[in-house]
Amino acid sequence: MKLLLPIIFAVMTGLFWGTYGPAVGLAREALPGDKSPFKPYLMIGLAYLVWGVIGGAVAMRATGATFTYNGGQATWGFIAGSLGAFGALSLTIAMFSGGMAMPQVVMPIVFGTAVSVSAIVATLTINNVEVNPMLYVGIVGMAICIVIVAYFTPHPKKHGPPPTPAAQVTTPSTSHPA
């Protein structure tokens, strides 16, 4: 079970983050006429505060972790949090600039790119490692998959004028009065 735990939580993360984009779009669409992308972003920040800070403190206490940090932990933790916040802001702006149809296009780009960037950063930051050329094949494959998923994901129908009713056709009655 211990070996499955990282996989289970990785899948959960994918599920949460996969529903994140559509939820941001729904938050923006919830108030007709007021489609500011920054109202949902403010609530995203509040959620990070509640779940990140308070939840993190509770989890640290429950696991017996200390509340002392060295410079590297604090610095890199803050950088990681900032990267996540800037990612959320970038996603919010991406959704804002494209309307409600954009989660189906933006989300595959976001997560396909994230996988590739993570792999590239690992190759640049891990010392004395030989990169298998298949990594680059995978990155190209991911780019192809991004396009396929974004293109074939169902999109909401565009709003247009309502269909015009068909003209009523009257036919002469075939029954005769008695």
What does this structure look like?
Keywords: Membrane, Transmembrane, Transmembrane helix. This is Signal peptide-domain containing protein. The chain crosses the membrane at residues 43-62, 74-99, 105-126, 133-153. It comes from Planctopirus limnophila (strain ATCC 43296 / DSM 3776 / IFAM 1008 / Mu 290). The chain is an all-alpha fold. It has two domains: 11-66 and 77-99; 101-155. Helix content is 69%, strand content 0%. The protein has five helices and no strands. Helix 1 (4-29) crosses helix 4 (103-125), helix 2 runs antiparallel to helix 3 and helix 4 (103-125) packs antiparallel against helix 5 (134-152). The protein is extended. The N and C termini lie far apart (86 Å).
Q: In angstroms, what is the radius of gyration? A: 25 Å
Strand segment count: 0
Termini, distance in Å? Answer: 86 Å
Major sheet details: none
Number of individual domains: 2
> What are the secondary-structure elements, in order, as H or E?
HHHHH
Strand content: under 5%
Number of helices: 5
Shape: extended
Low-confidence stretches: none
Could you estimate the helical fraction of the residues in percent? 55-70%
> Mean of residue pLDDT?
83
User: Structural class given helices, strands, pairing?
Assistant: mainly alpha
Descriptive tags:
single chain, 178 residues, mainly alpha, 2 domains, 5 helices, extended
Summarize the structure.
This protein has 178 residues and is mostly helical. It has 5 helices and no strands.
